[in-house]
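Students often ask why we bother predicting the structure of a whole assembly rather than each chain alone. The short answer is interfaces. A chain on its own may look different once its partners are present, and contacts between molecules only exist in the joint model. In this exercise we take two input lines together and write out one structure for the complete complex. Read the inputs first and try to guess which parts will touch.
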Amino acid sequence: MTSFAGWQMPLRYGSETAEHLAVRRAAGLFDLSHMGEIAVTGPDAGAALDYALTGQASAVPPGRARYTMICAEDGGVLDDLVVYRQGKQEFLVIANASNTATVSGALTDRAAGYDAAVVDATQDYALIAVQGPAAAGILAPLVQLDPAAGELGAMKYYAGAFGTVAGREAWVARTGYTGEDGFELYCRPRDAEHVWTALAAGGSGAGLVPAGLAARDTLRLEAGMPLYGNELGPDVTPFEAGLGRVVKFDKPGEFVGREALAARASAGSSRHLAGLTIASRRVARHGYPVLADGRTCGTVTSGAPSPTLGVPIAMAYLDRQAASLAGAALAVDIRGEAVPAHLTDLPFYSRRR
Amino acid sequence: MSVPAELHYTPEHEWVSVEGTSASVGITDYAAQQLGDVVFVSLPTPGATVTAGEPCGEVESVKSVSDLYSPVDGEVIEVNGELEDDPSLVNAEPYAAGWMFRVRVAADGNGDAALPTDLLSAAEYEELTKSAG
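Now the answer. The structure tokens for the assembled complex follow.
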């Protein structure tokens, strides 16, 4: 167990490598109840989110989800988010645990003047995820979606519906943070143990294993997904992180950070997020300098041994020059030793579709 | 968590097993569990001189990297080459196949290994890990 943003979190249940590989090959069961859930509801909920976020929430149809960001006036990232549209006037915004209060506060401020209510509902939800190629098959016998939503297996990626899991009410969404197919189940905290136990029992024959934060981190790293605090932060814009697509300049109306983001977009970024493969068994970790011809040209933001690829991988911010030098002789300063590294396209891993 | 009674321990979570003046060294079950899956072990070179309490290698796990401290003074006479191919032995058998290196320690007046006086007994080490939570 480990302390994380005020929560006691399972770092691993057994071997994090085995948990990681189980998600790639079968399925993993995650307790993600630390994630923040912020409900934004009312006749102007979509318009308020359009103003508050970089994305266009009002254009998301009910029953669908979007990956988006909330930025400060200067364009820096306050958090990356998943927004579910649960109904015409009902949105559920999922924030990182360490940012829930910040996001909730910013949404409240930015919704002033709109006919919309912002409520931090984190304590009303447990979040259990089933991730991996076997996830849909494991969940199918346990999940009943509202009739209008159809069958679970036919649910699109980045969609969601109300229903029941093992007989308990839940918002069932086909989303995740592992690079695999999978589902995230938002249920009541008092139902969480029942749901977890039913899933663990129902999925064990299909290879489902409980998986902790350590496996979640290596899974998202292989999938090239950013982690707030590593790749994202108030000093980073979405463009530098390679996620400029989440900024919808063509949406109607004003939004917080538009001016600064437009300036940053047209000026180009001075640094870019890049993937590195390390030619060693030593791991390049957060904060280690990246070298080009012996001179510092960037900093590692996340690094780990990749269980799928069998070599250490890392994401790093590199200055523009280095990022454009495909095949350049790069190295990471691993505690005083310049260890060769190779630029590698992100993501390191993509599932077969 | 296993803490074999016959071994000596350090607060940095190494164990020492002594035969004559040869001291075998590894990391404890507790340390291996705290580190998680070990993916690489950097060991001292045979012939190198190590000093008690000084770093002489590194243990890389999925989540972190930690210094490996020598619990004794002496000359490295052998390292566990198996760890090069299979570092997970450190997790699977921390006190057996996961051993790390052997040191020739100076003899005391009785011909026994002269060990640092601040090494911990199994009971003392177990107490230390409990208070660490």
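Check your guess against this: The mean pLDDT of chain A is 96.
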